[in-house]
Amino acid sequence: QVQLVESGGGLVQAGGSLRLSCAASGRTFSSYAMGWFRQAPGKEREFVAAISWSGGSTYYADSVKGRFTISRDNAKNTVYLQMNSLKPEDTAVYYCAANRLVSSVPADFGSWGQGTQVTVSS
User: Fold this and answer.
1) 77 pLDDT above the threshold of 90
2) Phi first, then psi: what are they for 94, rounded to 5°?
3) 10-38 confidence digits (pLDDT tens)
4) Which distant-in-sequence residues (6+ apart) come within 8 Å of 79 by Cβ?
5) ∠ CA(50), CA(105), CA(73), 5° rounding?
6) What was the pLDDT predicted at 27?
7) Cα–Cα dist 110/105, whole Å
8) Bridge partners of 36?
């Protein structure tokens, strides 16, 4: 398994931007597909974006398509989530996760970070 630590969350006004980072430990990071998920209070954890091990394929939830961009730097063992045009409904704890295969299903992911809070004010 890989250990994950998210950073970059915070408070931003609607229409603003944030970039989340997820740093991974271990020498096998480049063999994992990575995903970003989020969970708002009282709601289930939901898929946001995913990226293949090479970075060649990316996938997004309809709710963030065109506003969020997932990317990775395997040399730095880091995956990013650039979030633009943020909306109040994007407010949630954001988690990164690692899995051998690309997936949008939280239960498929065996390694999770501790999460970082993103709050978007109206």
Assistant:
1) yes
2) -105, 135
3) 999 999 999 999 999 977 899 999 999 99
4) 21, 22, 24, 34, 36, 51, 70, 71, 72, 73, 96
5) 20
6) 72
7) 11
8) 49, 96
